[in-house]
Amino acid sequence: MSRIGRQTIKIERPVYIRESAAIVGVKEGEGPLRDSFDVVLTDDTLGESTWEKSESKLQKKAVFTALDKAGLAQKDIDYVLAGDLLNQCIGAHYCMRDMDIPFLGLYGACSTMTESLSIGAMLIGGGFADNVLCATSSHFCTAEKQFRTPLEYGGQRPPAAQWTVTGSGCAALSSEKGIAAITHVTSGKVIDKGISDLTNMGAAMAPAAIDTLIAHFKETGFKPSDYDLILTGDLGHIGSDILIDLMGREGYNLRNIHNDCGKMIFDGEKQDTHAGGSGCGCCASVLCGHIMGEFKKGNLNKILVMATGALMNPMIVQQGESIPCIAHAVTIEREAK
Amino acid sequence: MKHEMTNKEYGEYVKKKTPNSTILKNCVKAFLIGGLICAIGEGFITLYKAIGLDEESAATFESITLIFLGALLTGLDIYPKIAKHAGAGTVVPITGFANSVVSPALEAKTEGMVLGTGAKIFTIAGPVILYGALASWIAGLIYWVTSMI
Q1: Which residue does chain A place closest to B107, by CA atoms?
Q2: Taking CB atoms and an 8 Å cutoff, what residues of chain A touch B11?
Q3: How far does the CA of residue A136 sit from the closest CA of chain B (Å)?
Q4: A298-333 pLDDT tens trace
Q5: For chain A, does the N or the C end have fewer beta carbons within 10 angstroms?
């Protein structure tokens, strides 16, 4: 493993995504990617009495499905890295209390999926582990409860609002060959361009995505055209639009190779999701479901996945603060270099 | 970055990039659905008067009926579906007040009747109750002072 820049590491000991699993809710299962998920729920409660317990169970389901698909048992796993959007990461913590694996909890808001892949790749690449699970989840009902208004409250969502994905994804990283390899990791800095509108997260997060992306290209020497796909987590329609426009001004043409999990997971017109999907589970389920599926089919060779996160809570925004954001990027290639 | 924007420039750029709500369409829908709720209320007043209640009692029973219907439709998850189109048309009438009380009460029920529903029931309606009471107190004071003159 070698550091090739201020923010970027080249992973030299091969780190593979051995298998992955994606579980989504009812609405996500009605979207364009419905066939790419391992499980589509028929009941978003998962039979639990509270939404928080439902989210925990959702994450657990993703972890066990990934273990099954990878043919691994809990005792084979050296670390599990997981997080979610809830206060004190209770989604992950109450999932992990039923597991028997050393656990490191992560909070990167909606960037948690690529944060966990980054650290997982460093753990294996650095020789500290052979098998690491990376998991995150989000649930529409827990997110609304914590960040917005009660579910039954009659309000109108502005056009820039995004829809929190009910979903979870788990990637089983391994030093043994798998679907694809993680070859580079670019860790983001916290960037705040002064946006304080909680209903326009894409615009708040886009500058963090731009910052990490430029660092990635400069430090690796890669060009956008080296990639088959540059995939962001949940910038949604507005954030994506800003990303393409401002990266263009910096001399990087992302048109035709950029897509966003938040744009892919829902059909905005039919499903009334405004600016697109969001939440940790958005990038997690699209990456662990659809994207890994495309790698298996041979449709992708080299991609950059960059999940973005808004690192605020409603209280501090009410206190007049703007929204600090972050983006973490990982390069995923068919073969380890 | 070559073309780094200041926070102010970025804020203005984002404003241009963000679509606005369709104000005219929203206003028309709010007017029609809000108006319909009020018309239903008027219908109840007429009904209650027809069965022999006086003007004041009929109006009181009409409010009670609308509050009940607002709460019921919230519990059945129908009110937010109407509100999505109506906006202010469902917030302003008394049914909207019922929705703003019932919805947090329902959501907090998993945290228990005291620390959940009891503590959270007025999280949305609380400011309306507080400043409504304050405004009526100030209005009363003004009325009292002007009536002394």
Answers
A1: A150
A2: 193-195
A3: 24
A4: 999 999 999 999 999 999 999 999 999 999 999 999
A5: C
The one-letter code for the residue type at A36 is: S
State the count of interchain CB pairs (< 8 A) between A and B. Answer: 96
Q: For chain A, report the end-to-end CA distance as a whole number of angstroms.
A: 12
ipTM of the complex, rounded to two decimals: 0.93
Give the rounded percent of residues in chain A with a pLDDT score beyond 90.
Answer: 98
For residue B10, the chain A residues in CB contact (below 8 A) are 193-195, 207
Chain B within 8 Å of A241 (Cβ-Cβ)? Answer: yes
Task: Give the span between the Cα atoms of B146 and A126, in whole angstroms.
Answer: 81
Indicate the residue of A50, A154, A210 with minimum beta-carbon distance to B99. Answer: A154
Q: Which CATH superfamily is domain A1-337 in?
A: Stage V sporulation protein AD (3.40.47.40)
Amino acid identity, residue A226? D
Selecting from B13, B20, B83 the residue whose C-beta is nearest the C-beta of A154 gives B83
* Option in B10, B14, B110 nearest A49 (CB): B110
Cα–Cα distance, A231 to A275 (Å, whole number): 16
pLDDT tier at B1 (50, 70, 90 boundaries)? confident
What is the residue-averaged pLDDT of chain A? 97
pLDDT at A12 over 90: yes
Q: Answer for the pair A198, A314: CB distance below 8 angstroms, yes or no.
A: yes
Residue-wise pLDDT tens digits, B79-134: 999 999 999 999 999 999 999 999 999 999 999 999 999 999 999 999 999 999 99
Contact status, residue A27 vs residue A271, Cβ threshold 8 Å? yes
Cα→Cα distances A333→A4, A132, A291, B62, B83, Å? 18, 18, 12, 67, 47
Domain boundaries, chain A: 1-337
Q: How confident is the model at residue B3 (pLDDT cuts 50, 70, 90)?
A: confident
Q: Encode A241-258: b = buried (16+ Cβ within 10 Å), e = exposed.
A: bbbbebbeeeebebeebb
Chain-chain contact of B99 with A159 (C-beta, under 8 angstroms): no
Q: Which has more confidence, B21 or B18?
A: B18
A211 interfacial to chain B (CB closer than 8 Å): yes
Distance from CA of A285 to the nearest CA of B (A): 27
